[in-house]
Specification:
Low-confidence stretches: 1-18
Radius of gyration: 27 Å
Structural class: alpha+beta
CATH class of the largest domain: Alpha Beta
CATH architecture of the largest domain: 3-Layer(aba) Sandwich
Bound molecules: zinc ion
Number of helices: 13
Shape: elongated
Number of domains: 3
CATH topology of the largest domain: Alkaline Phosphatase, subunit A
Largest sheet: 7 strands, mixed
Strand content: 25-35%
Strand order of the largest sheet: 2-7-6-1-5-3-4
Length: about 575
């Protein structure tokens, strides 16, 4: 931030009169919803003044980084350099982005308190929702209004004073696309955006002629639906396709597509630069060093390269080496291994559990990847359209069974504030089931259980109690072995044990049915036999379907109607199958 502007008469003599915070300055232009292919298809002479590459957004589909190809998640990535599993802006309605992953505004302001920062955003939520805490860092800003209003503010900033960083968001291609889809009006909006770009490039070039160095980056938050272009939000190749344009020669992360990416989905789209590359590129150009905690998921496209195209699959990290140097591997900010030059894959010898932030460093450049190994401990229905999931690390998720996704803001830690009386036992939960609209039971690792009053939303007085022949007749001998419970139809509940056996309990008779325990095998539970000792949670979805969750991050769908595992299972628990459950 800067003190009040110098007099314009003085500034007219020279743009560089003041002691500048940064030798290298940046103009970042975001054009909302501008489809990459429409740049080349229209008359865009000002884009022709720049280097242009295809790129991608939406995270890596079916992994924890998958995010909606919408404006909120897209701009959050453009301004933080991380995906939704870190910035935590899953939708356009989201509030503040996760402050553990600072914005460009904050990186620049914290590097130099005198940095001159401007941000003009036709789409207001960038300032009013996701980065509202960063507004105080801006010397000049605006939100809302028209593209020309904000263009003129950006031009006024570039034509006077000593700006170090200017962000401008233009909205017209997206707005026209939503109302009229692809067509002549959309094409005109692209050409209009190009004309605005031309004025901005002229202003930057004038500053460069007076001795300043300016990196211009132009990008978009998301593509558009296939063929017609009316909408966006999903994981299709055109919606995931974005572009990055720049006035400077960048390194090969920008200029050299990986033609053989580890993940070949979407016609090899992941071989292009990621939307997460923009922030580290700008910081590298401005000379702002970052560290292992930054968590950027891409190497910068300017300056030294770190590992490129870092990929994680089947517990193995693979990458392209940007230079022939050692790679230092960090887990949760601790250096754990140094790999010789030339090595381009690594597997953690230690089993992964909970949340682990990995970072691979070459030449001082850190590229991060978060691995979350989900160990569900329990799941149960609720009296509305929600189900709850609990993990061994004491977090829980509220899952909307109609929208079939995790509600925004989850997971959060189980506390006595959100689950009165359960918080103290959160790490001991091993199984749970929804008995009826009055009661949920939780079974603990020490052989005790809790009765939760659904109506008053708290654990009943006097709990936990011991599982014995008064409380759960027939179950006491197995109380320490319970690993999952499944509320079945009528009065039946199944208890699954860690040794691969199970019991059936009759809630009406209030005792274990005779003849149990039995082995879980392909006669008693067709399709489940191979996973009998891997069940960590079970959930009744409705009267025809249940789910079993396994200790290895996979799940099975069980047909109550046909009494067998459905074909095609197990599948991985990921953002495609259980959105947000990780
Ligand atoms: Zn849009």
């Amino acid at each position: 931030m800067k003190l009040p502007v110098l007099s314009s008469a003085l500034l007219a003599l020279s743009f560089t009169a003041s002691a500048d915070a940064f030798e290298n300055k940046v103009l970042l232009i975001g054009i909302d919803g501008l489809q990459y292919e429409k740049i080349g298809a229209n008359n865009t002479p000002n884009f022709d003044r720049l280097y242009l590459t295809q790129a991608y957004t939406g995270g890596i589909a079916k992994t924890q980084t998958q995010q909606k190809t919408k404006s909120g998640p897209g701009w959050a990535t453009i301004l933080t350099g991380v995906w939704v599993n870190k910035h935590q802006v899953p939708s356009n309605d989201s509030g503040l982005a996760n402050k553990a992953y600072p914005s460009l505004y904050r990186y620049i302001a914290e590097h130099d308190a005198n940095a001159d920062i401007s941000s003009f955003s036709t789409w207001g939520p960038i300032h009013t929702q996701f980065f509202s805490d960063d507004v105080a860092l801006m010397d000049r800003r605006s939100e809302g209004g028209s593209d020309d209003d904000n263009l003129n503010k950006a031009l006024a900033t570039l034509n006077s004073g000593s700006p170090d960083f200017v962000f401008l968001h233009l909205d017209e291609p997206d707005a026209v696309g939503h109302s009229l889809c692809f067509g002549s009006a959309y094409n005109k909006s692209v050409e209009d955006a190009d004309k605005r770009l031309g004025k901005l490039l002229d202003a930057v070039e004038a500053r460069e002629q007076s001795g300043e160095n300016w990196l211009v980056m132009v990008t978009t938050d998301h593509g558009r639906t296939p063929v017609v272009g009316c909408h966006h939000g999903e994981q299709t190749e055109p919606e995931k396709t974005i572009f990055i344009a720049t006035n400077k020669v960048l390194n090969k992360e920008f200029s050299s597509k990986d033609v053989n990416p580890a993940n070949t989905d979407f016609s090899g789209l992941y071989g292009y630069p990621a939307q997460t590359a923009i922030v580290p590129t700008i910081l590298s150009y401005m000379g702002i060093e970052t560290n292992v905690q930054a968590g950027f998921e891409s190497t910068p496209m300017y300056g030294d390269l770190g590992v490129r195209k870092l990929n994680y699959g089947n517990k193995l990290f693979t990458w392209l080496n940007g230079a022939n140097v050692q790679t230092r591997v960090y887990r949760n900010d601790q250096l754990i291994e140094t790999l010789p030059a030339g090595v381009a894959q690594w597997q953690d010898p230690q089993p992964v559990s909970g949340i682990n932030n990995y970072s691979f460093e070459q030449q001082g450049v850190h590229v991060g990847y978060r691995v979350t190994e989900l160990k569900l401990s329990a799941a149960h229905q609720w009296h509305n359209t929600k189900s709850y999931f609990f993990s061994e690390d004491a977090r829980y998720w509220r899952y909307d069974t109609v929208l079939d996704k995790t509600d925004d803001g989850y997971p959060v830690s189980v506390t006595n504030g959100n689950w009165p009386g359960l918080g103290d036992y959160a790490e001991q939960i091993r199984a749970s089931f929804y008995k009826d609209s009055g009661t949920v039971y939780y079974f603990l690792s020490d052989g005790q259980y809790l009765s939760y009053d659904v109506q008053s939303d708290k654990v009943r007085a006097g709990y936990p109690k011991t599982i014995d022949n008064n409380t759960w007749p027939g179950l006491a001998a197995y109380a320490n072995k319970i690993t999952a419970t499944l509320r079945w139809t009528s009065d039946k509940v199944y208890f699954f044990l860690d040794d691969g056996q199970y019991l059936r309990y009759d809630l009406g008779d209030d005792r274990v049915d005779s003849g149990y325990p039995k082995a879980v095998n392909d006669n008693t539970w067709p399709g489940l036999g191979a996973y009998a000792t891997k069940i960590s949670a079970a959930l009744k979805w409705n009267d025809t379907r249940a789910y079993f969750f396994l200790t290895d991050g996979r799940y099975l769908r069980y047909s109550i109607t046909f009494d067998k595992v459905d074909a095609g299972y197990p599948k991985a628990i990921d953002n495609g199958t259980w959105p947000g459950l990780q």
